[in-house]
Amino acid sequence: MTVPVTLAAALLLPAVMTGPSALAVGTPRPYAPGAGTPEYPFAAATPDPYTPGAVASRPYALAAATPDPYGSAGGTPAALGTGAGTGAGAAADAGRLEPGRTYRGSLPRGGRLSYRLDLDATSTVYVSATALPGAGTTVSATDGLSVSVRDAHGESCSYQATRFAASRSPHPIAAWGVREASPGRALCRGAGTYHVLVERISATGSSPDTWPLELSVVSEPPLGRAAATKPPASWDSASPRPVTGEPADRPGGTGFEHATPVGQGVWQDRIRPGGTLFYRVPVDWAQQLGAVADLAGANGGSGYADGALTLSLYNPVRGYVEEAYAGYSGRPASAALAPLPPVAYANRYGFADQAKAMRFAGSYYLVVHLAAQTAQAFGEGPYGLTLRVRVDGTAGTGPGYAGRSEPQGLFEVTAGDRGEASARGAGAVDGSTGLRLLAVGGIGTGTALLAVLGVWTLTARRRAAAGADVDGSHSRTSAHRPTA
After folding, report:
1. Which of 274, 304, 314, 384 is disulfide-compatible with 296, CB 3.0–4.6 A?
2. Residue 279, CA distances (Å) to 176, 255, 322 in order
3. Is the pTM for the entire model greater than 0.90?
């Protein structure tokens, strides 16, 4: 069924999505940011550039030698933006962010952190902030964080707020901001200094714990030729058919940088309450992503866990796309992502936020969380998960960028990406498991062994580079409001 985009946005169906991943029987995995020495632009006295005359005060900012509880690489982090000031000079003292880098810091209750971007007139730049509340932290449905971008005159370029919503369970959440340098944009187009403000949204009764914070900064080059400035007039908004077949085991990742690659297929794993699993799906230009998740029944217990299962979808710059969740009564529960348009550069000119986020090719992230309170009614588990991923359509050509992204290669899907997702999906290239499968298959499989080694090498290089619910399912695609 093909319907106009505006109508399709209004017809987006309730959905939830989960991703299977191999969770150890112990404590749920913490979020694990990417490898490499993190950068710290979080000054101890960074003033708020949006409040003229404000007294500079950031006693909550992360010191350069604060230990990293999430297992990033060691080393002495760099300190940026250590100046302080008031009034007009405050903006100049904000820590400077550079495209292509990832930064680590912290965000206290009620905290407001300000940063500076020095941009040219042609690149579009994205800033994603990921909050990492620890296990045992108390959060409410309205707790969250926001990211806003403004120009040197205080004009708003974008704003988005992300909250824990129905899950009411601590897990990684991310919000994003953008300075778009696109034709037809009257504001925020020129070269110069722009300001990023990251704020924690705190509700009454939530824990005062300071949250670790990760910032990712990405630049998108301009186009080399003129392109459409209107979104596709129509797209297939019918719910995709769930993928069927025997599931293959697939361990989930511990963070965006360590997300497990998956392609079209059926994958399974186990998850404990409080656990969060990360997957990435290569989606090329003109392709359409869909997914359905099944949470297996409990072995005992009774009651109902509202918002127990949460799936969040993020785009290649870790920008929020949409979210879905499902309650759990101990019986099998299923949920599906709401229909999304095929990936297209012109989607950024659309109306619905979730459609606008499907603006480039690359790795899209499926983040699955099982709420901690599920254990109170049904035990510590682990619980079975089955993830059905569908990628429809033939890969198309890109819009013709006149340069490279920072980090490089972010907005493309290579044959290696597809091979990594499909080969790993076969369950034959994940450490000792892959060796065992080859051994069972016999010694005379040299070609298969070379293929496995190739995928291992590809994985190492990538990491070094830096549907109805029995109990009722729900999607939340408008709770976050990015405006750009």
Report:
1. 384
2. 19, 9, 15
3. no
CA-nearest of 464, 466, 458 to 416 is: 458
d(CA 89, CA 194): 14
CA distance 434 to 455: 11
- And the tokens for 189? 């187009």
Backbone φ and ψ for 130, nearest 5 degrees, come out as: -115, 120
> Which single residue is written with the structure tokens 């359409």?
288
Structure tokens of 195? 């300001």
User: Residue written as tokens 């100049």?
Assistant: 92
Strand (E) positions, 202-343?
A: 211-220, 234-236, 248-249, 260-261, 265-271, 276-283, 288-295, 305-314, 320-328, 333-336
Residue 479: other Cβ atoms inside 10 A: 17
Residue 196 contacts residue 145 (beta carbons within 8 Å): no
For 353, the 3-state DSSP assignment is: helix
- Residue 7 near residue 326, CB atoms below 8 Å: no
Contact status, residue 151 vs residue 191, Cβ threshold 8 Å: no
- The token duo for 465 is 């580079």
* Sheet strand arrangement including 95-97: 95-97, 112-119, 192-201, 144-151, 156-163
Question: Pairing state of beta strands 276-283 and 260-261?
Answer: parallel
C-alpha–C-alpha distance, residues 145 and 203, integer Å: 11
Using the structure block, give the residue that is written with the tokens 């297996």.
Answer: 296
Helices in 240-373 by DSSP H: which ranges?
Answer: 353-356
Query: Which phi and psi angles does 118 have, rounded to 5°?
Result: -105, 105
Three-state SS across 124-156?
EEEEEEEECCCCCCCCCCCCEEEEEEEECCCCE
Task: Pull the structure tokens for residue 299.
Answer: 């072995």
d(C-alpha 168, C-alpha 369), whole Å: 11
Angstrom distance (rounded) from CA 178 to CA 350: 15
Check if the beta carbon of residue 324 is closer than 8 Å to that of residue 166: no
Sorted by sequence, the CB contacts under 8 Å of residue 132 that are 6+ apart come out as: 30, 31, 70, 172, 211, 212, 213, 214
